[in-house]
Write a structure and sequence with these properties.
Largest interface: A-B, 144 and 143 residues
Largest sheet of chain A: 6 strands, parallel
Structural class of chain A: alpha/beta
Oligomer: homodimer
CATH class of the largest domain in chain A: Alpha Beta
Radius of gyration of chain A: 26 Å
Strand content of chain A: 15-25%
CATH topology of the largest domain in chain A: Rossmann fold
CATH superfamily of the largest domain in chain A: Thiamin diphosphate (ThDP)-binding fold, Pyr/PP domains
């Protein structure tokens, strides 16, 4: 990066010759390849967009003009061009650059972004504000790497298409949608590529955009010419560029789906140089168990919104039972719900953070319609990831939805038993899998009993029954949830949800040292309380401690606290504070939320002194 | 309906002559006009789709074939054709048909639907299930009256476009999107209409559909021919029909936006025959106050996803400060957030039930990015509406979102003060407005103090600050919320949120009769507790009663119960049970959730006996 570092970036790009720009391009590509090989990252997306990014900074001045990234995992070249080489040298290390767009890092980043399909609406907002305030500058949105399939992008196109002012959309078409493109849309894009953009059938012009096509999407000179032509345009325009995902690494170009994200690898062969982080054993096992379960259950179908990690394995083994909805969470939930209602054993597999996109479909298409589909939520709970991918909202999001039974397994054995339970249930079920770097858990190896939980009877109805407008409702009656009691003691009960059961066990051990024989419970169910057990605990327990790894407000502990709110049992609720959190390490999480068993012990001692 | 009633419907339609079908059509139109004039309803949508519905039932046999409605407020002709004439005679009365699709009413309804844009994904699920199970039947989805602008519809098209089997999409294009169509998309549809479907630029063929156009979308014979041609087709096809919204009522045709939904009216003049339900005073006032506020604040902008009620008034008075995003809630939240971040005083106005569509945008585009936009949530809390439009989830949905200050006014004066507070806040704010039929409230007329609430200091930071990946987070510090104490007593405190303050006042009066001088509090803030007040109450209160009109789990009372969970203060949490509810009348709501002040009194007495 010697040459690139010598420049006053990004301004210097505006006056640099093509040779100079190509030097920068080469250095960035080499830097990124070296860095990805060393620490891993979004290999394909970033290597494919180096030249377009340089051209953007050459043609526009993003101190005045505005650049909006979506699925911002493709913005590392942009980071290198905007004063963040040193941060990027420590990429994936303490003090280094984050993997996503973030205004706290640079004035050249306008939003914190991590999800797909957001750039068009965000840029429309900027353009609207600009026009309202009578300002003049270019608004450029980058859409790509599959974001077009998300409903929000479409809503954005519809809104951008009605602007009467400057709006430039750079569509980065690398023929991929994180995973292989799924959906009818991509046949249309393929025809546009095949005709070099001349096919009159064009979704962008249909929606009111002017449209330009550039086949050589990694050709700096042509990119610059194309963008120069659009600069200061007075209406919405799309520049559709055809780029090469993974450019610069032969194996990444050849297998773009596998090289969307790479762990550290050998630059010549592409072979991984580390094993999957063994601290993450519980997640990896769970994903493997999920795939194994689907594969071995011939009537089961997996419905997944664009995921190379899961999708590839299913595509390779049971392609006929794997439905990729493209990056479209709303569609995934609605389609799977409908499939289940019409008799197919359906499993949606979606990360907690992305599932937020389908909250209404969870409420309406799925649970209101009582469709017996199963949802497997990946990456739940607080994670060391960036804020936009944090899984920490799953419990407030799902545990307050009527007619949905939401479970939290504590190890692989229990997870598989929960999967079997879901298959037999005739109502909506969901299982949360943990996220983040999890230290080895003592509870991992034990075998657990079969899952017990069912809707009881109310007014003779055990099915959800929505009445006509004539009035009323016969809801599903109370759900009978059965927890697992690992140890029955007295005075203090520790309820550890999911991975937090381990902390409960460790805390119980510390309590034993001070003469307290604490009860230890694996609640199993997040959405419903084991009220029989909670009632029993009233007899000989003064304090119930709830431990959960998600946002505590609206969560599991709050349900327990509400249940006991008219009794003498005290409840200590431990979870994540209601805050947006970014890239906390495990040690910071322990400290910030007082999750270490020693800290919990101190709080229990203090509480008992008060009681 | 004499002739129609004499038929064995819907089967009889399959063998009926055109004359017979036209008889049925005429009778249905007259029936609906009479019924709407009498009790109100979705006038325009239903009158425009009578002939297409008859044609569907003529050509297909929906005992075997499957018909999926979206925005199901246009399915009343379908109800009349499927054994529900008697239910429809009692439309909008006890024991009558609901306004929306509902399998509990008829085997010809496949889903409970009320939101837009759902039909395509739901039908894709049916088609997938059919193909998996090796069955043979037609799957027909109706998309229309503006549903195309919603992201879920687009995700559905993308998924339908990749099917290799029978899939028939009937696009009901009435040139409207509930309100006037907004967005670039509709220019494309207009070109298709203008060219009678021959324009090669066609979003449907772009996405992999075969495409047919029928200009005479209300011509029975042509509709039947067109559908006959598509029956048993082996791939996805769109039939785009051009229909006349409000057909049969001149004034409804002339002003389709005003006649999307009508209250009882005179059939000749269209003049309303009743005043707006005066029981709904608080909502209507609030909407009027909102519009008045926007109109009188020259730097304010309203961003609304397709709403004729609100949109028309703003369009008529301040069109330059009104942005209709089309029916696209994700876009509305993202665009308004971005506008606010870039300096525009932005107000999103969205109904609680529809806001569910934008949960991820609330979490990410808006609050994670700390954009100081204001959200006005209409129709919050339990309502006598159908289940798909029930506003009952707003508190679990919004009160657990970090960095968002959510408020609940108790009357118009307080609402206007909250609006002013929001304008001055440099963080995300939201206000919930009540829904449903609200009896006149004693609290309506009082004047209230200015709103006080602010983020305090933590680590010297008063702005949300997301760090780089180097670690950690400096969140906004604790929010200082100030409640309104209407009366300071002792022993029992009643915290009545929003309209429930009235119940708190009434309950306090009953308590007075038995010698208890209860404290009465208007919490004002839903998302944050007035911890100073709650701490003070510990001194001389044994019981705190929380009253809220939304789902209690994940709600306000649960926060209070959690706050007091380590103290001796008992908390009685009163709200809506976690259940999907449909068309409950106010009296049923009082009974079901024990909201009548007499019932609350009994529960307090019982609780105090225990304490």
């Amino acid at each position: 990066m010697e040459y690139t570092k010598s420049l006053n970036l990004p301004e210097a790009l505006q006056t640099l010759s093509l040779d100079g720009l190509e030097n920068v391009s080469d250095e960035i590509r080499q830097f990124l390849i070296d860095k990805f090989a060393e620490v891993g990252g979004h290999v394909g997306p970033n290597l494919g967009i180096i030249e377009p990014t340089i051209a953007l900074h050459k043609v526009f001045d993003f101190k005045n003009d505005r650049l909006v990234w979506d699925v911002s995992h493709q913005d590392l070249p942009h980071k290198l061009l905007t004063n963040r080489i040193e941060l990027m040298e420590k990429f994936h290390e303490k003090g280094g650059a984050s993997a996503f767009s973030n205004p706290a890092e640079s004035e050249y980043d306008n939003f914190i972004v991590g999800h797909t399909s957001t750039s068009v609406t965000q840029a429309v907002g900027i353009a609207r504000a600009r026009d309202i305030k009578g300002e003049k500058f270019n608004v450029v949105a980058v859409l790509g790497d599959g974001s077009l399939s998300g409903g929000q992008a479409f809503e954005g196109l519809n809104n951008a298409g009605m602007l009467k002012s400057n709006f430039i959309l750079l569509l980065n078409d690398n023929e991929m949608s994180i995973d292989f493109n799924a959906g009818g849309l991509y046949s249309g894009l393929a025809r546009l590529r095949a005709t070099r953009g001349t096919d009159p059938n064009n979704i962008f012009t249909f929606m009111g955009f002017e449209y330009k096509y550039l086949e050589e999407g990694n050709d700096l000179a042509k990119l610059i010419d194309a963008l120069e032509e659009l600069k200061d345009i007075n209406h919405p325009v799309v520049l559709h560029i055809h780029t090469l995902k993974g450019k610069g690494l032969d194996f990444a170009v050849k297998h773009p789906e596998s090289w969307h994200y790479g762990i550290p690898f050998d630059k010549t062969s592409g072979a991984p140089t580390v094993k999957h982080d063994e601290n993450r054993a519980l997640i990896v096992n769970s994903i493997d168990k999920t795939i194994e379960y689907i594969i071995n259950k011939p009537d089961s179908y997996a419905i997944i919104p664009g995921s190379p990690l899961l999708g590839r394995k299913l595509q390779d083994t049971v392609p006929e039972r794997y439905i990729d909805t493209a990056i479209a969470e709303q569609a995934a939930v609605s389609i799977a719900s409908s499939m289940a209602k019409f008799g197919v054993d359906s499993y949606m597999i979606i990360a907690s953070s992305f599932l937020q996109r389908a909250y209404d479909q969870v409420l309406q298409d799925w649970t209101l319609n009582d469709c017996p589909a199963t949802l497997i939520v990946l990456g739940c709970g607080v994670t060391p990831t960036d804020a936009a991918h944090n899984g920490v909202f799953d419990i407030p999001m799902l545990s307050n939805v009527p007619n949905l039974v939401y479970m939290s397994p504590t190890n692989d054995d229990e997870y598989v038993k929960m999967l079997k339970y879901c298959a037999s249930a005739n109502f909506p079920t969901a299982i949360r899998l943990p996220a983040g770097t999890i230290p080895e858990l003592e509870i991992s190896d034990r075998e657990v009993d079969e899952i017990v939980g069912y809707f009881g009877q109310e007014n003779g109805a055990d099915k959800l029954c929505i009445s006509t407008a004539s009035g009323g409702v016969l809801p599903k009656s109370e759900f009978i949830a059965k927890s697992e009691v690992l140890h029955r003691g007295s005075k203090v009960a520790l309820l550890g949800l999911g991975i937090m059961l381990d902390t409960a066990v460790k805390t119980a051990r510390l309590l034993k040292d001070i003469g307290i024989n604490a009860t230890v419970v694996n609640p199993r169910f997040v959405s419903h309380l084991d009220t029989q057990l909670l009632d029993e605990l009233k007899d000989d327990h003064q304090l119930v401690v709830t431990l959960e790894d998600g946002i505590a407000e609206g969560g599991f502990g709050a349900k327990v606290a509400t249940y006991y709110s008219m009794s003498d049992v005290k409840v200590l609720v431990r979870g994540v504070k209601k805050e947006h959190i970014d890239s906390l390490k495990f040690a910071q999480i322990l400290e910030r939320y007082r999750w270490a068993s020693e800290m919990i012990l101190d709080d229990i001692k203090e509480a008992l002194a008060e009681v």
